[in-house]
Structure formats: C-alpha cells, structure tokens
Amino acid sequence: MHTPPHPRTGVWLIGARGSVATTAIAGAAALRTGAPATAMVTEAPGFPADGLPRTADLVFGGHDIAHTTLAKRAEQLAAAGVLPAGLPDRVRAELDAADARIRPGVPQGHGSEHPADGLRRLAADIAAFRTEERLDRVVVVNVADTEAPAPARAETEGLDALTAALESGAHVLPASSRYAHAAFTAGCAYVNFTPSAGARPPAIAELAARTRLPYAGDDGKTGETLLKSVLAPMFGHRHLRVRSWAGTNLLGGGDGANLADPAVARSKLDSKSRLVGELLGYPVDDHLHIDHVADLAERKVAWDHVTFDGFLGAQMSLQFTWQGYDSALAAPLVLDLARLMARAHETGRSGPVTELAFFFKDPLDCAVHDLPGQHAMLLAFAERLRRAGGPA
Predict the structure, then answer these.
(1) 169 contact partners, CB below 8 Å, separation of at least 6
(2) Domain assignment of residue 48, yes or no
(3) Residue 252: what pLDDT?
(4) Of 58, 78, 321, 384, whose Cβ has the fewest other Cβ atoms within 10 Å?
(5) How far is CA 59 from the centre of its chain?
C-alpha cells in the first residue's frame, strides 16, 4: 500500500538570526537525530498530535537585518550555555541551509524603501520560499526584537485607506505589522511571539479576514508571566486578597539591550501587567521593572514580591525567583506553534486562533487567562485538529 508523503511545512522566522530563531532551528535539527523533545508541548505524553506536521519535516527560512550567520550565532549560544556543547558543529549543514534562505528584512524605523514596494518584496520573499522548497504551506512567526507601540494611525485605518496611504509613500505601519501584512498577502498563517503590534491593527486584521487566514499571538509566555498565570488563580481559589504584586526582570543579551529603551519596554510591560488584574477580577497595586544587565548574557532573572491579606486581615507575602535561558524556553514553543498553526491552516481555520492562548502573555480575543484553563482549551483544540479532515 502506498503511504502518502508527509506534508512539507515551512517556518518563516522574522528575526531569523536572533537567539530564539537560532535555538529553534538548531533544536529542530537536533530532534531529527534523536535528541529528546523536552519542553515541546506538542510532544508531551498524551498530547493529541496526530495530523500535525512532524518537526523533522519543518523547513526554515526568514527575514532579518542582522548579518551574523546562524552557525556563528549557534556557537555563541553554545558558549553561553543555551545550546549543548558541540551541537552547532553537529547541525552545521542544517544551519547553513536555513541561513541561505534568509532574506533582508525591514528596519523598525522608516528606512529608505518605499513602503508599498517593501511590502511587496517581503511577500514575494515568502512566496518564493514556499515555491522553491516545494512546501505545502508556510507559517510566519515573528520572533524579532520588541518594538515601540504602533503609530496611532495604524490603530484606526481600514485596509483600503491603509493601502492608499502606503502607495502614496506614507510610513504608517510598524515593522511587525508590515511582516504580518506580507504573511497574509503571501497566503500564510501568522504568529506574533512578541508584544509588538503584529496583526492587531484593524487594517491587518481586516486583511487576514479577506484572505481567510489564521493568526495567533501575542507575546510568548515563557517565564515570570507563566508563573503568574498559575499563582494568581491560587489566591483567587483560596479567597486570599492580593494587595500588591511587584516584579523586577533582569535581562542580558540583545533582548535586554533592546528593552533598555523606555519606549520599547513599554510594549513589554503593557503585555505583562494586565494578567494579574484580569485573573483576580480586581485592581492590584502592580509595579513592574525591566533592567538590562549585560553580564547575564543569555540568562534572564525575574524576582517577584506579592503581598496579600488572609483571615481577619492577617498580612502575608510571597516571594519567588525565576531564572533561565529565555531562548531555550521560547524556541520549543515556536516549534509547537508552527505545527499547530500549519494544521489549523490546513483545516481551513481563519481569524484569531484563541485556543492557543496557552502560549501567550496577552492572547488575542481570549478571556481565559489561567494556565490550567488555557491548557484544557489547547488540548480540546488539538483533538479537533486531529479529527478534522482537509480544508473546510
């Protein structure tokens, strides 16, 4: 009996030479050689993964404005402890192949390229990747640096007005939304793993609706916020009233340097700060800080101090510290999302995929914020994907 070939799925990474992208590409290559899939949710025992594209079949490319090769970046990550020693050499061929597919991106500022021409170029790059690699579909995932909040104009214009503005030469979209626009124009699903605007501007969401494509986001939930989504419901279930929740995040590497800009940090802080109040249902005295500590390199440290009232007003507190490699936490989730979104696209899903809230700090159009509730949604969604046939 003839066995049909597995579908070939492309993963087009925005910020393709960054730490998260490099870790994802190197990690996928390592999994092909039998490395354990620890931290990949879709590889957990009992997860209904039938029908999802295999990680071994993912093909990588992307956009970036950086010039450091993937092989060199992987060597740096291995030296920092993110990747296992020796892995960059073992997967050098896969890194070089992906690196050859990376195309010049767009800067977060305006740049010199005409905005409409830039969008056409980005979409053409993605479409060429799908054709040249003979891919069944492509998922575009934004893992680039966080950007400052979107221009006010991008938050109000419809698609037709936006198109006219772009053709006139007006720079009205932030970089993350330009990539989302290109993804939908090229017929691809889109994932925003950052707190940047992405597909949130109404005109971009309208484009997704017109092209009947799925998208998900925003801002991958990898560390401190992951713990908040577990701990905050605990206080609610025990009827303990939280009075304040202060958090300090210490970041090294390029992410920390990027977030040292207060305007950029505001996007991240806005994404992180909404969760506790939404989970508890009342306002909490919330103080969040992000500081760049270059000596931490690829490590991330989060320290939180929570004050709360118990029986008869007894005042108590909780402190916790989270330390880890953010790229190693994020990369497996990127692979999970690529697999799930490719299958969602295959089955005809369009619009915001709210069932993937489990992966995000600030999930699109989803009122469920506690982790167990989000996990139940994810499992039910994966089961529906497993049972689904081809395109709806």
Answers:
(1) 114, 115, 116
(2) yes
(3) 83
(4) 321
(5) 18
Q: What is the DSSP string of 210-271?
A: HHT-EEEESSB--SHHHHHHHHHHHHHHTTPEEEEEEEEEEE-HHHHHHHTSHHHHHHHHHH
Closest C-alpha among 30, 26, 29, 10 to residue 18: 26
- Shared domain for 211 and 346, answered yes or no, is yes
**63 lies in which domain range?**
9-219+328-387
Q: Do 144 and 253 fall into the same domain?
A: no
Cβ-count burial of 319 within 10 angstroms (0-12 exposed, 13-18 middle, 19+ buried)?
A: exposed
Same domain, 381 and 285: no
Backbone angles phi, psi at 40, to 5 degrees: -85, 115
Residues 273 and 185 in one domain: no
pLDDT of residue 392: 40
The DSSP result for 158-218, as a single string, is: -HHHHHHHHHTT---S-HHHHHHHHHHHTT-EEEE-SSS-TT-SHHHHHHHHHHT-EEEES
> At 342, which amino acid appears?
A
Contacts of 135 (CB under 8 A, 6+ apart): 8, 9, 10, 59, 129
Integer Cα distance of 179 and 173 in angstroms: 10
Question: What CATH number is attached to the domain comprising 257?
Answer: 3.30.360.10
pLDDT digits (tens, 9 = 90+) for 61-113: 999 999 999 999 999 999 999 999 999 999 999 999 999 999 999 987 777 89
Query: Does 206 share its domain with 298?
Result: no
Does residue 379 share a domain with residue 319?
Answer: no
Which tens digit of pLDDT belongs to each residue from 229-259? Answer: 999 999 999 999 999 999 998 988 777 667 6
| pLDDT for residue 62 | 98
The pTM for the full model equals 0.92
For residue range 159-216, what is the model confidence (pLDDT) as tens digits?
999 999 999 999 889 999 999 999 999 999 999 999 999 999 999 999 999 999 999 9
Cis peptide before 291 (omega within 30 of 0): no
Same domain, 203 and 272: no
Count the domains in the chain. Answer: 2
